[in-house]
């Protein structure tokens, strides 16, 4: 856990300035986006893209924690996208907003992510607990096209 976390207001301000609908269109500097198919192995693809992007940005030290968080976000997106009517697209977005890295996963579900009390015996229910533990802060934003982007913010030393 980061020792000097941002306040919730700071996190919300950063995400509002970024604007997920705009960012998901791609082509922005220091931004990587990757469409992910609606399948379980998208988690591995998301981890690989995250690690490669962070290495390219010179942020190798962040790659393990970020890959773990992305795994949880994509797992949740795949799980909830299956219940969304119509489309099942998922998209990974990584953005460098120095001194932060923003990771986001967009999915078509309008269901609000709700942390559960972690049950360390159960196979599920720990995802958002892990996201909260390893990131500086996390949250979600509704998308204009429907669905949401669930995001996590990391502070870098660079």
Topology record:
Elements: H1 8-18, H2 20-23, E1 31-36, H3 42-56, H4 63-81, E2 90-97, E3 100-107, H5 127-134, E4 137-142, E5 148-155
Antiparallel strand pairs: 1-2, 2-3, 3-5, 4-5
Helix pairs in contact: 3-4, 4-5
Structure commentary:
By secondary structure, the protein is an alpha+beta fold. The protein has one domain: Heat Shock Protein 90 (2-Layer Sandwich). About 35% of the residues lie in helices and about 25% in strands. It has a five-stranded antiparallel sheet with strand order 1-2-3-5-4, with helices on both faces. A hairpin with a 2-residue loop joins β2 and β3 (about 100-105). α3 (about 40-55) packs antiparallel against α4 (about 65-80). The two termini are about 20 Å apart. About 30% of the residues are buried. The model has no long low-confidence stretch (mean pLDDT about 80).
Short account of what is shown:
With 158 residues, the protein is an alpha+beta fold.
Provide the descriptors you would attach to this structure in a database record.
158 residues; alpha+beta; Heat Shock Protein 90; 5-stranded antiparallel sheet; 5 helices; 36% helix; globular
CATH architecture: 2-Layer Sandwich
Task: Tell me the name of the CATH class.
Answer: Alpha Beta
User: What gyration radius follows from the Cα positions, in whole Å?
Assistant: 14 Å
Work out the helix count.
Answer: 5
- Alpha-beta content class: alpha+beta
CATH superfamily: Histidine kinase-like ATPase, C-terminal domain
Strand content: 15-25%
Protein name: ATP-binding protein
InterPro entries: Anti-sigma-factor_SerPK, HATPase_C_sf, HATPase_dom
Keywords: ATP-binding, Kinase, Nucleotide-binding, Serine/threonine-protein kinase, Transferase
GO molecular function, one term: protein serine/threonine kinase activity
